[in-house]
Amino acid sequence: LDQRRADIDELAEGFLKLALRRAARSQPLTLDDAAKHRLREVPWGRYGNLRGLQHVLTRAVMQAAPASRVL
């Protein structure tokens, strides 16, 4: 991911949708521009690349308040 930062937004959206389905969350969540920017800044090579990105988004869904709509 460190060499493909332009792909992070699209991958993050896909992992977010997957995490939402797995959590059976009734209210959808979206990533705001600030969250996308932060995800692009992470040195993913140190955190497991794709698995690390998926883990971060899964945890964000699990920790989001029930009424939240934006991460």
Q: What's this entry about, in short?
A:
The protein has 71 residues and is mainly α.
The rounded distance between the terminal residues' Cα atoms is: 21 Å
Order of helices and strands: HHH
Q: Average the pLDDT over all residues and give the rounded result.
A: 91
Note the total helix count. Answer: 3
Q: How much helix, percentage-wise, in residues?
A: 55-70%
Instruction: Report on the biggest sheet.
Output: none
Unreliable stretches (pLDDT < 50, length at least 5) are none
Strand content: under 5%
Outline type? globular
Work out the number of β strands. 0
Describe what this molecule looks like in 3D.
The chain is mainly alpha-helical and 71 residues long. The chain is built from three helices and no strands. Helix 1 crosses helix 3. It is globular. The mean pLDDT is 91.
List the defining traits of the structure above.
71 residues; 3 helices; mainly alpha; 0% strand
Topology, element by element:
Elements: H1 8-23, H2 33-41, H3 49-63
Helix pairs in contact: 1-3
